[in-house]
Design brief:
The complex is a heterotrimer of chains A (288), B (339) and C (266). Chain B has 339 residues and is mostly helical. Chain B has helices spanning 16-20, 30-53, 57-83, 90-106, 112-131, 139-160, 178-199, 203-213, 215-220, 225-251, 261-274, 281-295, 302-316, 322-331; strands at residues 8-14, 169-170, 253-254, 332-338. The longest helix of chain B is centred in the first third of the chain and has 27 residues, at 57-83. Chain C has a 6-stranded mixed β-sheet, sandwiched between helices. In chain C, strands 2-1-4-5 form a 4-stranded antiparallel β-sheet, covered by helices on one side. The N and C termini of chain C lie far apart (41 Å). The chains are: A mainly alpha (288), B mainly alpha (339), C alpha/beta (266). Chains in contact: A-B, A-C, B-C.
Chain lengths: 288, 339, 266
């Protein structure tokens, strides 16, 4: 029973990590290696708003999400757009930016002292005999709501539909009058906001640590690769697969092996079915 | 007189002497020979002399470490610009090679002149095997997997407390003496550099370059792209493992820091700054970056921020890199012409 | 001529179907190719001709169907294995190695395992430097040997030469079948006129050819058996005169409405 509850929570957490990455990759085919960095950065921004500026918690959250979103969009607009289409340069550039942010935060003294974000609701309850704290329940609830909202957004709003169109076929979208550069910037902005959302939801569960930037990146990539780069449904499913696999390993093997699960998942996927669960990238076929 | 409708543009032409030194005609006179030989001689002699003229032992050590990074950087350049595989985790090769050498030395008692070749070959094979799943796929997957492996290995070693855990393996033999250590590295480095430059122009090198530019045509020619990618990865990872093995013998210690980000990011930055695609550029880039890195040691991880930002700047401004610029100036001249 | 009367077809394609998502690119296409003949495959744009080639040579995975080469099932093999067995192809969108000179382009196929096994085209590859053999091959297909043309970068060559380079790339493998995907497209009348003898010579050397073409008049000069595809289905096969006289084929090319109008006005 514990496995079910914790597994679900873990899976939703993974899905939240992965959504931002999946969105940016799906729309502009850019593997955003700065995703983890944006996650951690937004955590620190929230903390700063909250503690150094003394703002209301909710306000800090909203401002931090906006700030991260704008930052992401700016990064794309001024840096990554210049290397758009050149895979090698895109990868190196986004990786370097992520690195710069994370190591900059590390140097800037955000280490040693524990930085935490307070939980929204304190206290815990029991579900079917398993102790669960309210924050985690809230995370699951909000996580599901976010996925649902995203689905609605991409199916019923103009911008959402434009993003989906670009994700499916960029040339066709451009022919329909969708500005692909603008959409890519928007996607990056949204992706960063999703990273920030994940951060404010999940950081209260622990400390804000720079190292987690890399971990989050690995987990997000694992979820997206297993689910299929470019498929949101696949990402959600993969999050559940990996989430439960991780909890099972923790229960039966020990908590050290969590990251091993992520790595094994990626390697197995690449060996068995490289395009992932629902991947739309056909490796060889569409290039002849 | 320049008429209003005339415009000027810059034209780049090969220098006369470059054309005169094409293939066998280079033997015409000393002038042509030296045009070709001089840059290479300067490099070789320069590298051999540096340990002698450098002020202190500290800087000698810095130079040796630069050579190690240079090996990594050359392997990155080779993989990225001749085969199309971007390796974001050079630290993986260093770590594997380093730990293998450490184990060979401490557990099996093998001396450095055995552990290094052993670590190179076994490490190369091991790394190739681990990277094999992503070779049939698009380049993005290789970048992802190569990024993850060092981060992953560091965490696993720390969490499972194997191979010395966070303390690392200590008490590794060092090279017989200081000079052996340096000149061994320099000679290996020069051999690999010239060997790599030769390789990319040989038939097999053409196949590897074809893998980057035009892999469908390679498949249609009956050549297995995955096989040649693995050959390239083996060569590059062997280079990386060798540098890792030498490193542990120099520091006489092997630990998690072998998987550190430094080893991943400095080769990339050095390649971009020094001139990608030239194989000599990364060497130059390392000779510049590593001493700077030492000077900035007090700034801690700010160094990495610094490299990362320089890297980004170079990429987005599509700068050529030092060697590419240098080669262009050396081989060609520019002039304005009217048209 | 005896070779054509050989019992077993050298290439047997049966029931190939290919769906790209919701699009049926090919539906149950089957045909045989006999050793030493030239088979032409024609059809309007979008009829699936290039997809057939991709399916046969393994560049695209079939949804269903089989391909047999000399009796061996090559349906599931990767493209380089199929080329290794002797089925070479050219690309409709040409893919030379632009940054290399023309003769260096051939070094790569000469480096392949098949070339090294069979001794390359007319004995090169195993004996002799690949560069020299490359130049020999280029001379075979019409590059002027003593000029600078073989040494020019592929990026600077005009289309006629590039098409021949594609063919040369196939020849370097000493193939048994060459599938030419629109090799006459983009060429002028005189360039085609100089390629036709080359194709006839290939046939005399015993190579089986499958030619996908739009330029029907030139195609009918070299072959006497063609097959028509339309919307992914095989319409018919036979000799050119009978095929082109067929109503369905005419409708496929000109549109049934046009054919009707022509019939009405005739």
């Amino acid at each position: 029973m514990e496995i079910l509850v914790y597994g679900t929570i873990n899976s939703v957490m993974l899905a939240l990590y992965a959504l931002g990455f999946a969105m940016v990759y799906g729309v502009s085919r850019l593997p955003n290696f700065a995703h983890g960095a944006l996650y951690v950065l937004s955590g620190f921004i929230t903390w700063s708003f909250l503690n150094s500026l003394g703002l209301n918690y909710l306000l800090s959250i909203i401002l931090a999400m906006l700030a991260t979103g704008i930052l992401g969009a700016l990064i794309y607009q001024f840096v990554l757009i210049r290397v758009r289409g050149m895979e090698i340069s895109e990868i190196i550039a986004s990786y370097a930016i992520g690195l710069a942010i994370l190591e900059g935060l590390r140097w800037g003294g955000f280490k040693g002292m524990t930085y935490t974000l307070p939980a929204f609701i304190s206290g815990s309850t029991e579900i079917a005999g398993v102790p669960v704290d309210y924050q985690r329940l809230l995370v699951v609830g909000i996580g599901i709501a976010v996925v649902a909202l995203l689905w609605l957004f991409t199916h019923y709003t103009r911008i959402g539909l434009a993003l989906r169109g670009m994700a499916q076929d960029e040339r066709a979208a451009m022919m329909l009058g969708i500005d692909s550069d603008l959409m890519a910037v928007t996607a990056m902005g949204f992706g960063s906001m999703l990273a920030a959302l994940a951060a404010v939801l999940l950081l209260p569960l622990g400390n804000i640590v720079v190292e987690s930037g890399y971990n989050i990146l690995i987990l997000a990539i694992a979820v997206c690769v297993v689910g299929g780069l470019g498929s949101w449904l696949g990402a959600v499913l993969a999050a559940f697969l990996i989430g439960f696999a991780q909890i099972l390993t923790v229960v039966y093997l020990g908590s050290h092996y969590q990251m091993v699960v992520a790595l094994l998942a990626i390697i197995l996927t690449l060996i068995i079915k490289p395009s992932g669960l629902f991947g739309r990238q056909k490796e060889l076929e569409e290039r002849v | 007189m320049t008429l209003p409708s005339e415009q000027q543009r810059k034209e780049r032409i090969d220098r006369g002497i470059k054309i005169r030194t094409d293939s066998i005609y280079a033997m015409m006179s000393y002038r042509e020979l030296s045009y070709l030989a001089l840059p290479r001689l300067i490099l070789i002699v320069g590298m051999l002399i540096i340990p002698l003229v450098v002020p202190s032992m500290y800087w000698q050590r810095v130079f040796t470490i630069s050579c190690i990074y240079a090996l990594l950087a050359i392997s990155f350049d080779f993989l990225a610009h001749y085969v199309g595989l971007v390796s974001l985790g050079g630290a993986f090769f260093v770590g594997i090679g380093g730990y293998l050498a450490a184990i060979a030395n401490t557990s099996f008692g093998l001396p450095p002149w055995l552990t290094v070749p052993l670590a190179t070959l076994i490490g190369g094979s091991l790394c190739t095997l681990l990277l094999l799943p992503c070779l049939p796929l698009r380049g993005v997957y290789f970048a992802i997997v190569s990024l993850m492996y060092p981060l992953f290995m560091a965490r696993v070693i720390e969490a499972l407390d194997i191979l010395g855990g966070t303390d690392g393996i200590m008490g590794i033999d060092s090279f017989p003496n200081r000079w052996a250590e340096q000149y061994f590295l320099i000679c290996i480095l020069l051999l690999i550099l010239f060997g790599a430059r030769r390789l990319v122009n040989m038939d097999i090198g053409l196949v590897l370059r074809g893998v980057k530019d035009n892999d469908q045509a390679i498949r249609a020619s009956g050549i297995s792209v995955t096989f040649y990618k693995s050959v390239a990865v083996f060569l590059a990872s062997a280079m990386g493992c060798m540098s890792g093995a030498c490193l542990v013998h120099i520091y006489m210690w092997s630990g998690i820091s072998l998987f550190a980000l430094d080893f991943s990011i400095i080769p990339i930055a050095a390649t971009v700054i020094g001139g990608s695609g030239t194989l000599v550029g990364p060497l130059l880039g390392c000779l510049i970056l590593v001493p700077i890195s030492e000077l900035l040691r007090d700034f801690g991880t700010l160094r990495i921020v610094f490299y990362a930002l320089i890297l980004v700047a170079f990429i987005i401004f599509r700068s050529e890199g030092i060697m590419v610029y240098g080669q262009r100036k050396y081989h060609q001249f520019e002039r304005w012409i009217k048209f | 001529m005896d070779k054509i009367l050989n019992k077993e077809p050298i290439l047997k394609v049966s029931g190939i179907t290919k769906h790209f998502g919701g699009i049926k690119a090919l539906s149950d296409v089957s045909f045989d190719v006999h050793e030493g003949e030239i088979l032409g495959i024609i059809g309007p744009n979008g009829s699936g001709k290039t997809t057939v080639v991709n399916c046969i040579t393994g560049f695209v995975k079939k949804t269903s169907g089989h391909v047999f080469f000399r009796g061996k099932d090559i349906s599931r093999k990767p493209p380089h294995k199929i080329a290794d067995m002797g089925v070479a192809r050219t690309f409709q969108i040409m893919r030379p190695y632009y940054s290399l000179p023309a003769y260096k382009n051939l070094v790569i196929p000469l480096f392949s395992p098949r070339s090294r096994r069979t001794g390359g085209w007319r004995g090169g590859g195993r004996l002799g430097d690949r560069n020299t053999v490359g130049i020999d091959i280029l001379e075979e297909i019409g590059f002027e040997r003593d000029s600078y043309v073989p040494y020019k970068l592929a990026a600077t060559l005009p289309t006629g030469y590039l098409k021949r380079l594609e063919l040369a790339r196939c020849l370097a493998l000493k193939p048994e079948i060459i599938i030419c995907d629109e090799i006459f497209s983009g060429l002028s009348m005189s360039e085609i006129a100089s390629m036709v003898p080359l194709i006839e010579r290939l046939q005399m050397d015993g190579i089986t050819l499958i030619m996908i073409e739009h330029r029907l008049r030139e195609l009918f000069r070299v072959t006497d058996r063609i097959m028509v595809l339309n919307f992914g289905e095989k319409l018919m096969e036979g000799n050119p005169k009978t095929v082109m006289a067929n109503e369905e084929v005419k409708a496929a090319y000109f549109g049934s409405q046009t054919v009707q109008e022509v019939m009405d006005h005739a």
